[in-house]
């Protein structure tokens, strides 16, 4: 098939490569513009662009697809199918109507749950035990189209957003390959989503990253791993951001009940033990302001966090 592929992050790369390996003709790749990245704000191309250029594919990067020259180009190319995977923009009707076989999306959740731009992170932050990938026909709404196929994957306590992105990107590419034949021959059985069961996963904000120590140790643990290795969860120490990249729930609730949430109980050995609204949390990988991420044990060799130190409060 003649296919236009639209995607941006690492999650989308296995789907693009699988389409090429299967012999489909990728007539165009559409991705987001290059963005500043890192402390030095170096202009960096998205992973899909890098993968596409390595394969000699044509790449377009409109800031906004609707009404752009890229939208006109898509109409001129007359693809059989448009495949999207974490592209980052809603496709306008003028683009949705172009391909004779429609537009399909590889979405990182079990729809209709977790529609939106951060389904993987939100699933982990919310403590879900399972997520997956859904392939759906695209509609004008946000992830509202009819579902064609899906696959479920467990979320283990050891998983972070990083590990689940990798697992789901591979599962999504495999599901795409097994689903395409039915789309091509017209036998795909699409099922409407149950609107009553829909939940949403909006993009994460700075406030989503801030730790509320009055929450349970388990909820903070989920927040930390749901934000790793992307933005990272943070608290404040000496009025500066103090990121937490890994932690463990410690089952000593009776001790935590007598401690003000966010209070350091002890800081020695493997990490920093902190009280929460329900249980204790051992911080094992941290990042003070202006430093690189490091094991908490290494940080404690050169810094003192006496018992009674309070995390949180202030602005960041």
TrEMBL record:
Signal peptide: none annotated. Residues 204-303 form the Formyl transferase C-terminal domain. NCBIfam families: fmt. Its EC number is 2.1.2.9. Belongs to the Fmt family. The lineage of its organism: Bacteria, Bacillati, Bacillota, Bacilli, Bacillales. Pfam families: Formyl_trans_C (PF02911), Formyl_trans_N (PF00551). This is Methionyl-tRNA formyltransferase. It catalyses: L-methionyl-tRNA(fMet) + (6R)-10-formyltetrahydrofolate = N-formyl-L-methionyl-tRNA(fMet) + (6S)-5,6,7,8-tetrahydrofolate + H(+). InterPro entries: Fmt, Formyl_trans_C, Formyl_transf_N, Formyl_transf_N_sf, Formyl_transferase-like_C_sf, GART_AS, Met-tRNA-FMT_C, Met-tRNA-FMT_N. Keywords: Protein biosynthesis, Transferase. The keyword Isomerase does not apply. Residues 1-179 form the Formyl transferase N-terminal domain. HAMAP family: Formyl_trans. CDD domains: FMT_core_Met-tRNA-FMT_N, Met_tRNA_FMT_C.
């Amino acid at each position: 098939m003649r296919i236009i592929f639209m995607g941006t992050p690492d999650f989308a790369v296995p789907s693009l490569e699988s389409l090429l390996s299967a012999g489909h003709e990728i007539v165009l790749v559409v991705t987001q513009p290059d963005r500043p990245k890192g402390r030095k704000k170096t202009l960096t191309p998205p992973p899909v662009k890098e993968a596409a250029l390595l394969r000699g594919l044509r790449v377009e990067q409109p800031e906004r697809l609707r009404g752009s020259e890229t939208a006109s180009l898509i109409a001129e190319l007359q693809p059989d199918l448009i495949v999207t995977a974490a592209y980052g923009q809603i496709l306008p009707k003028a683009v949705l109507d172009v391909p004779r076989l429609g537009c399909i999306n590889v979405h990182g959740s079990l729809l209709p749950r977790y529609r939106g731009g951060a389904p993987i992170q939100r699933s982990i932050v919310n403590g879900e035990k399972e997520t997956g990938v859904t392939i759906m026909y695209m509609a004008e709404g946000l992830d509202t189209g009819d579902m064609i196929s899906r696959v479920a994957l467990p979320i283990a306590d050891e998983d972070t957003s990083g590990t689940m992105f990798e697992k789901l990107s591979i599962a999504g590419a495999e599901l795409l390959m097994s689903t395409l034949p039915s789309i091509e021959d017209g036998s795909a059985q699409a099922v409407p989503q149950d609107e009553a069961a829909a939940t949403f996963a909006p993009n994460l904000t700075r406030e989503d990253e801030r730790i509320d120590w009055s929450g349970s140790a388990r909820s903070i643990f989920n927040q930390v791993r749901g934000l790793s290795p992307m933005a990272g969860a943070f608290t404040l120490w000496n009025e500066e951001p103090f990121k937490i990249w890994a932690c463990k729930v410690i089952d000593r609730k009776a001790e935590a009940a007598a401690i003000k949430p966010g209070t350091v109980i002890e800081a020695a050995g493997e990490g920093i033990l902190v009280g929460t609204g329900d249980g204790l949390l051992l911080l094992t990988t941290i990042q003070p302001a202006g430093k690189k991420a490091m094991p908490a044990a290494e940080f404690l060799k050169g810094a003192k966090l006496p018992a009674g130190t309070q995390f949180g409060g202030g602005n960041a």
